[in-house]
Amino acid sequence: MALWGGRFSGKTRDEVARFTESISFDRRLYKYDIAGSIAHVTMLAKQGIIPEHSAESIRTELGKILERIEKGDFKYDISLEDIHMHIESALIAVLGDEGARVHSGRSRNDQVAVDVRLYLRDAVEEIIGGIREFQRALVRKAAENPEQIMPGFTHLQHAQAVLFAHHLLAYVEMFDRDAGRLADCRRRFNVSPLGSGAIAGSTLPLDREYTAQLLGFDGVTRNSMDAVADRDFMIELLSALAIFGIHTSRLSEDLILWCGQEFDFIELDDAFCTGSSLMPQKKNPDVCELTRGKTARFTGALTALLTMCKGLPLTYNRDLQEDKVPLFDAIDTAMQILAVYPPMIDTMKLKGASMEKAASDPALMATDLAEALVGLGVPFRTAHHRVGSLVKYCREKGKALDELSLEEMRLTIPEATPEFPAMFDPKASIAKRKVTGGTGFEPVASQLAFWKKQLDLA
Question: Domain containing 63: what range?
């Protein structure tokens, strides 16, 4: 009989048992459920709600159950629905009524709420650690190529010459904000709901602050109904992961483009690529493409939880059992991405000649001409128009900007000085960009130094 079956006279149909079970996915919470139960019975004994010898027997047996689960000797049965009932049933099977004391003053509602928070606390730390290693890989690759020039893109068209290191460090910044969002999310959910019961707390003299202390929480939830019914902490986490997913997808798209023959900027190591079943010459950037595809799962998980929670009345409803499926999938996906990306970046090879050739298009320095005019006192909009007219002249004449004489330049830019025809060197262009946060050699060197210190890189 189910642990809640006292009110029922009939047996649950097999189809319903299969439909309502969650042990197939919530079994990963086992060690957190056991940790919560150990803290709970320790508090119950401290408060005189159960005898100390009962608490000690329960703690000992819970330790044995933990060992059995980790050794793979623990049997699961869908009739017991979830990990909480499996562990409690195993406890009662050995200790009888002594084991039945474990659930005094709590509900599965606050039990699962504490289990998931404990699980997420570890998961978030692991993901943040993975993001930091991702950042380190990007910084290492940038530091290996501090002066490599490439074309920067807007609208997927050549825009201005930039440093390859500057491009990678843009993602380092994005991932830093991702880590910050996750840490902030962790701070908000690191409060204990244990003792909130099913909805209204308990008539027993529970010491919620004590169990929170035992479990390493920063405090306790203030409202029992909110504690068991809301999942905003999961939604916030999934939102942070969805943003992280967008960033990894954008980086993946950049790498996919750079691998293509039209760009030919990089080569990924064979260990991170696959071939075609038909075309023997192919080398496909499948890790990047799968990452780009898998990040859709973050958005899907976030949408699933938002939709699941939007119409639920207070307090707990069984709908919330389904919260863990998208949550676990999103966390697993993030960890998979973080396992493959740092070594792929570390082994990535640059094709510097191709990058420099693409960055040497003199049109990429058109803005340099406009800014040089501004330095001579010409209003920017006037300067912009005159350089635009010069580009139009070049197109009509079939000439590149760096093929013009000073006299030709002065046809549309009367203020042009003898230095103007020499402004089409991408290295010189980058060297002049000394503004903080820019792509110049000096600011990028400062960015690299900053991130090496932040990420403990020698």
Answer: 5-104
Q: Identify which of 194, 192, 197 has the alpha carbon closest to the alpha carbon of residue 217.
A: 192
Question: Catalytic site residue 155?
Answer: yes
Based on the domain organization, do 165 and 182 belong to the same domain?
A: yes
153 and 99 share one domain: no
pTM, rounded to two decimals: 0.93
- Indicate the residue among 334, 357, 380 that finishes a domain: 357
Contacting residues for 355 by C-beta, under 8 A, at least 6 apart: 148, 149, 150, 151, 164, 265
Judgement on whether residues 119 and 89 belong to the same structural domain of the protein: no
Q: Which of 155, 202, 277, 405 is catalytic?
A: 155
Q: What is the pLDDT of residues 134-172, one digit of tens each?
A: 999 999 999 999 999 999 999 999 999 999 999 999 999
Q: Are residues 327 and 441 in the same domain?
A: no
- What distances in angstroms separate CA 195 from CA 122, 150, 209, 234, 396, one per listed residue? 22, 59, 10, 20, 79
The answer to whether 276 is a known catalytic residue is yes
- Domain end position, chosen among 340, 357, 374: 357
| Catalytic option among 24, 53, 276, 389 | 276
